[in-house]
Amino acid sequence: MMKMIQLNKVDVFYGKSQALHEISLSVHPGEIVALIGANGAGKTTVLKAISGLISWGGGDISFNNQSLRGLKAAQIAMKGISHVPERGGIFGKMTVLENLELGAAANRTTEDKESRFQKVFNLFPILKERKTQLGSLLSGGERQMLAIGRAMMSRPQLYLLDEPTLGLSPVMVSLIAKVIKEISNQGGTILLVEQNARMALKISKRSYVLEIGCIFREGPSRELLEDEEVKKSYLGS
After folding, report:
1. Domains of the chain and any CATH numbers
2. What is the pTM of this model?
3. Which residues neighbour 182 within 8 Å (Cβ) at sequence distance 6 or greater?
């Protein structure tokens, strides 16, 4: 099966400190793949390397069999990769509609923009109700919905989701998990970074476990749910 995104022995440094050590992972079209691990393990660094927010040293990252080396973040976004950062990164002084409009700028196809809005509002009805409200006035859960909706507006091939349930209530965590699965059901491909390891393993097909910048475990998510080391370290059992 073709790999949509592939990291091959990627190294990342912050100054003289090495954050990622020969990371190799892949995501196939239509998959939800989870990346779990403790704080500081390098999960967010993986997403930043893919989306061009930081550079990498050794190894390579390819998207649809084309290397991303040397490309700027805007160029990578135009290729069809949408990065939803931790806590969403929405613009608080802009309305919900204006935030969504920004997402559409990364995809300049002739598809009717209104149909993209409709897809977002079908998935997040509350955003339609709040469409003239400033982002700063939304709740934490609504901001996360807006961040994901903004990513949807670009119709990306690959979603990079960084801690989408961070700080949310259990009810909102459940809702975001359902949304992620629905995006996948509609043909979206997702690389999910998540500290809620149990949720991430339950909704993903495959998973990687990072420890101190290295791949510690990988495999089908259902198997990692039963892995004793994973259960002890990340599932609280």
Report:
1. 1-80+159-237 (3.40.50.300), 90-156 (no CATH)
2. 0.93
3. 123
